[in-house]
Write a structure and sequence with these properties.
alpha/beta; 9-stranded mixed beta sheet; 5-stranded mixed beta sheet; single chain; Rossmann fold; 2 domains; elongated; 29% helix; 12 helices
């Protein structure tokens, strides 16, 4: 493997830009995401894509990865899953369609290790040289469950040839302390050699649009920045693309099953790429509202919100800014406040509840809304 994984990945990502194999006039292509720079103009180490279901995310990324392995752009990859009891056949489930459609001479075989902490993935090619079929075996990489990641800290050398980590369906069914386990796993895999403490190992995370308030977005500081119509978001070290595949959406709209369940929230999210578990009503930024006055401050864990009143517009607004001289401070963190029912009848929340039902309360983002609504309702 190249000693400089950064340069190796840069070459691979640039190759994908001109690779007709992964281009489609109907489905998503991963090349633009993987060639987008982060907020600092650097090559990100975290790439995130969210879309409606059947938008082509998994298929396109796995096609690119298999192409990379077969053609020498990649050495090994890690397929990340949630837990040990889901690890078996995860890789085959992800790659089977791509192998069937483009590389039918290949299959994936799994080699279980005794501890069960990871699975070795073999990419096996069946070739007939005239004297019978011969199996040519290449190490594809590893399947690693997040709930065993802490057991692998002493095995960094085993993963020295890993170029990339891939997590599909990262939203939902979280294991305890998931993001910390994911971060520790990356540290194990990305451990450097000789005079380097760490090396560049990019992570690709894919998911349907389930909730902005997921632990990954929270840890990356994404939650408060995303709006319902956000398509691209660049941060320090990461880039996120959110899209709706129109071909897939139209096909799903025409399904008689989906027509029958057209009012179902899951079906609507599958088609329209709306955040399944989030309600974006009443989320709005002040626009020509005049001057606002901070009446109260709410603390929710590490986050602080200001409750403003804009008399010219008649709106109450929950903001991430606040007046530090304000004396009226309420702790609304459910981890601290034991008696939420009593807090609901404190003066600011009585006012907010009344104004909310009159339609004159606005929130800066979905996280602020969720925190305050937990007290109001």
């Amino acid at each position: 493997m190249s000693k400089n994984n950064y340069e190796q990945m840069k070459k691979f990502f640039e190759r994908l830009k001109t690779l007709d194999l992964i281009k489609s006039d109907k489905f998503w292509c991963c090349a633009p995401l993987l060639n987008t720079r982060d907020l600092d103009g650097e090559m990100p180490e975290i790439f995130i894509a969210c879309s409606n279901r059947t938008g082509g995310k998994t298929y396109n990324v796995t096609l690119a990865l298999i192409y990379g392995i077969i053609n020498g752009y990649l050495d090994e990859i890690v397929v990340v899953c949630k837990s040990k009891n889901r690890a078996k056949n995860v890789a085959m489930g992800r790659f089977e369609a791509v192998l069937r459609d483009h590389y039918p001479e290949y299959t994936i075989k799994e080699e279980n290790v005794e501890s069960g902490d990871y699975i070795i993935l073999h990419l096996v090619r069946c070739v007939d040289y005239g004297e019978g079929v011969v199996e040519e075996d290449t190490i594809l990489g590893y399947t690693i469950p997040l709930n065993t990641a802490d057991n692998l800290k002493d095995y960094s050398a085993l993963f020295r040839n890993v170029n990339l980590m891939f997590t599909d369906e990262f939203q939902g069914n979280y294991c305890p302390d998931e993001v910390n386990k994911w971060a520790n796993l990356h540290t194990t895999i990305a451990r450097g050699e000789k005079d380097k403490a760490t090396r560049y190992v990019p992570c690709i995370l894919l998911s349907n649009s389930i909730s902005i308030e997921n632990p990954y977005f929270s840890e990356l500081g994404i939650t408060g920045k995303l709006q319902s119509n956000t398509k691209w978001l660049r941060g320090h070290g990461f880039v996120l693309q959110r899209f709706r595949n129109e071909f897939s959406a139209q096909q799903q709209r025409e399904s008689r099953f989906n027509v029958a369940l057209s009012g179902n929230k899951q079906i609507q999210s599958n088609i329209d790429n709306t955040w399944l578990n989030d309600d974006f009503s009443c989320i709005e930024k002040p626009d020509n509202w005049g001057r606002g006055y901070c009446h109260h401050v709410f603390q929710n864990g590490d986050e602080t919100y200001g409750m403003y009143y804009y008399p010219d517009a008649g709106y109450f607004y929950i903001s991430r800014t606040w007046d530090k001289t304000c004396k009226s401070v309420y702790n609304i963190s459910p981890n601290v406040v034991e008696d939420i029912p009593t807090l609901r009848y404190a003066p600011p929340f009585v006012t907010l509840r009344e104004k909310y039902y009159k339609g004159v309360v606005r929130f800066c983002d979905i996280t602020a809304k969720s925190a305050v609504m937990n007290v109001l309702t």
